[in-house]
Amino acid sequence: MANIEQLIHDVVLEIARQRTPEIVAIRRDQKLVADLGLGSIDIAQLVATLEVQLGLNPFASEVSITSVRTFGDLCDVYRSTTPTLPLQANPTDVTP
Predict the structure, then answer these.
(1) How far is CA 8 from the centre of its chain?
(2) Digits of tens for pLDDT over the chain (96 positions)?
(3) Structural domains in the chain?
(4) Which pLDDT score, from 0 to 100, does residue 84 have?
(5) How far is CA 76 from CA 79, 90, 95, 96, in A?
(6) Closest by Cα among 58, 57, 62, 79 to 9
(7) Three-state SS annotation for the chain
(8) Is the dihedral of CA 10, 29, 16, 33 positive or negative?
(9) Residue 50: how many CB atoms within 10 A of its CB?
(10) If 0-12 CB within 10 Å is exposed, 13-18 middle and 19+ buried, where does residue 92 land?
(11) Could you give the dihedral angle defined by the CA atoms of residues 65, 57, 50 and 63, in that order, rounded to the nearest 10 degrees?
(12) Residue from 25, 36, 30 nearest 70 by CA
């Protein structure tokens, strides 16, 4: 899996550019609404896109979306709820 923060950055950047095309990068301290201009529909699109790409939606039960203010908050929520995958399969566990 790609670096989760980079994936989230790319999705947020794509959605933010729909409103403000001159945005080139996003910092962890930037507020999704106040700084990047995202509205409730944009946030819904963001969560739906990340759910498809990551296979999870932490806002369905674990965390309230209203607790997320910044890009860094968003990354932290996904990082904390993403299941840890093994780095390498154990060769004895692989069935031919």
Answers:
(1) 4
(2) 348 899 999 999 999 999 999 999 999 999 999 999 999 999 999 999 999 998 889 998 878 989 999 999 999 999 888 765 433 333 333 333
(3) 4-83 (1.10.1200.10)
(4) 56
(5) 5, 29, 36, 38
(6) 79
(7) CCCHHHHHHHHHHHHHHHHCCCCCCCCCCCECCCCCCCCHHHHHHHHHHHHHHHCCCCCCCCCCHHHCCEHHHHHHHHHHHCCCCCCCCCHHHCCC
(8) positive
(9) 21
(10) exposed
(11) 30
(12) 30
**CA–CA separation, 9 and 72 (whole Å):** 10
What pLDDT score was predicted for residue 83? 64
How far the first Cα of the chain sits from its last, in Å, is 24
